[in-house]
Amino acid sequence: RNDKNLTADTVSRALKCCAATVSVCRKQQELYGPTHGEVIYVATPDVDSSRFPLLQSVKATPLHVDTPAELGSGSGQLVTFLCMGIVCPRKNQAFTVKCFKEMAGDRTDVRLKIVGVRRSRDYEISYVETVERAVDGDSRIELHDVTHEVDGFYAEADIVVLASLNEVTPMVLAEAMARGKPVVTTGIAGIPEMVDDGVEGFICGEEDSSTCVEQWAGRMSELANNASLRTRMGKAGVQRYMKQFCLQHMVDQYRKLAVKLARPVVLVDMDGVLVDWDRGFLDTWAGRSPVDRSHYEMERCVPADRYSEAVQLFRSEGFFRSLPEMAGGINALQEMIRKGYEVLIVSAPLAESQYCAQEKFDWVREHLGEEWLNRVVLTMDKTSVRGDVLIDDRPIISGLQRPIWSQILFDAPYNQEVDLAGRHRLVGWNNWEAILLNELATNPAMDAAKDVADTFPSASGGMKRIRSVTSVTSEEIAELRDFSQELECTSYLKNYQSWRRGRSRGAKGESWQAIADIESIRKQMFLDGDDWSSVHVYRSAYQNWRRGNAKGSKDSDVNDANIPIVSQPL
């Protein structure tokens, strides 16, 4: 919100030209109308299921569905309603208190916990006082300060209520469902995409009217009186969480999106994958003996007395050039290129054959065309080839390097009994895209950061080397947004500003430490508010001064402290 480079014009241009614009719900996507829109719901961090038995039970038996016989009346125990979120007008806690008191009447078996009191801003202080007046000393209603330790409150809760007037896809609903808690909420913005009315909870109106208050009170009473209904909706919420709001689901969606935008490098083996080696051998062998194709090496699949004869056959001139293509293989490679993948044909030539290497090039020229020769990599060690995925029929691939690719095992008679060890199996070329996308979405190698100065595939085929990021010019730096304000009070500010002035030296230490430091500042800002005092090195003295203490900063020279002096009317 403080980014001066972000204007209505730049946002409009970005929505039109960006290759992908992610919205957190369909409603948001419809509002902004990006040219290339994607919807990825915001996930909630993983939950320790040991504190939430319902989450444990649904994970153990996810297909369980309650029968009508399981529905019953309340247990008579104390029922806790939880309202989680910063106490402020848009979260509408005063309305929540009104609805709770309407529902509770003179009941003593219900209570309401409101968690999120923060007195950093004037409007927050004012609204907390409004909520306190609404509570009016009711001992069944508790107000608690804002906290990051939310699981204790969720564990005590039976029902989560959210009467917000301004939200997109509120995290508290996903958090509640992850913990097996039914919800009562307004139906604004993207909330109907998170909760189905009557399934994971109830959706009620947001107007502060007697009709809405009665509706809220009725739904709250319905849940308070029926423990089995709470359980049924809680289980439905857990299932919704696992399907739509678990962290891994969101990560997989962003990974798939990254794969679409980042041109993954697909390595494809020849023999037994792109080339139907078995059919070619059997046609040439012409029934000289039975062939037991239980071994990867063909010479071991014929009787022992035919071993040398088989070896001589595939060492002979013309054998590799005459091999037929694997059904659908050529079309699959051409389709990969059309869909934006970078494809390299990687094959290990038979070292004992003086014809094999050249005939592999001849085969590619004949079946795919001259332009594909730049995509051929012949090597005795495939672990040295850089790529994201290798499609290969060999059960075990070893070499001198630890490969950065993951293998999709191309189906063959001799690899049926091997341990896939998490690998995907590709049975023929018809389903190549689904298998490839799944592999890319779950490939741990895709998480590793890659040096931008390394060789990367070019869009036109072959390989090219891109320039190092250290060659960026001062003019290009001047065009970039200045993040000095965001780095205020971190150890990275000085190095960053030096870099912007033309020095190539970067910050010391590891990038993860920088992220951790900035995240720590963000957490503190959340707890204390985002006013200037929350992040400045003189925060304690400044806050004392704001509370009326005369003592200021210990530095005698205010200008030396680099504190901006802002004149404001009193």
What descriptors fit this protein?
single chain; 570 residues; alpha/beta; six-stranded parallel beta sheet; 19 helices; 16 strands; 36% helix; elongated; disordered C terminus
Helix content: 25-40%
Count of discrete alpha- or pi-helical segments spanning 4 or more residues: 19
Determine the structural class based on helices, strands and strand pairing. alpha/beta
Instruction: Please tell me the overall pLDDT.
Output: 83
Strand order of the largest sheet: 5-4-3-6-7-8
Based on DSSP secondary structure assignment, what is the total number of beta strands?
16
> Main beta sheet, described?
6 strands, parallel
Radius of gyration: 32 Å
Structure description:
By secondary structure, the protein is an alpha/beta fold. It contains 19 helices and 16 strands. It has helices at 8-17, 26-32, 53-60, 93-104, 122-135, 151-156, 171-178, 210-224, 227-245, 247-261, 277-285, 307-315, 329-338, 356-368, 432-442, 474-479, 493-500, 511-528, 539-546; strands at 21-23, 37-39, 79-84, 110-117, 141-145, 159-162, 183-186, 201-204, 265-268, 342-347, 376-378, 389-392, 406-410, 424-426, 455-457, 463-465. The strands form four sheets. A six-stranded parallel sheet has the order 5-4-3-6-7-8, with helices on both faces. Strands 11-10-9-12-13-14 form a six-stranded parallel sheet, covered by helices on one side. Strands 1-2 form a two-stranded parallel ribbon. Strand 1, helix 2 and strand 2 form a beta-alpha-beta unit. Helix 3 (53-60) crosses helix 9 (227-245) and helix 4 (93-104) packs parallel to helix 5 (122-135). It is elongated.
